[in-house]
Design brief:
Layout (H helix, E strand, L loop, with lengths): L6 E3 L3 E4 L2 E4 L3 E3 L5 E4 L14 H9 L13
Antiparallel strand pairs: 1-4, 2-3, 4-5
Protein name: (R)-stereoselective amidase
Keywords: Hydrolase
GO molecular function: hydrolase activity
Length: 73
């Protein structure tokens, strides 16, 4: 939400040795709302992303203007 871009995150599912992968892949809009989310099973999720929401979100909540890059180490 603070970067005000759509995010698509893919995560593994299943087991490999002693490791169990949780899945829970997700698509999030620029407002931070979950558009689509997978569970812990292998699957394909499809979501429509409105790219015009990015400009609208940045206008409504100008988080990027509050950044202070001169403070970054």
């Amino acid at each position: 939400m603070q970067n005000q871009v759509a995010i698509v995150m893919c995560n593994r599912v299943g087991k490999e040795g002693d490791v169990t992968f949780a899945g829970q892949s997700v698509v999030v809009d620029p407002y931070g709302n979950v558009v689509s989310k997978a569970d812990d099973q292998e699957q394909l999720i499809i979501a429509d992303i409105d790219l015009t929401q990015t400009a609208a979100a940045r206008k409504q909540r100008p988080f990027l203007e509050l950044r202070r890059p001169e403070w970054y180490a």
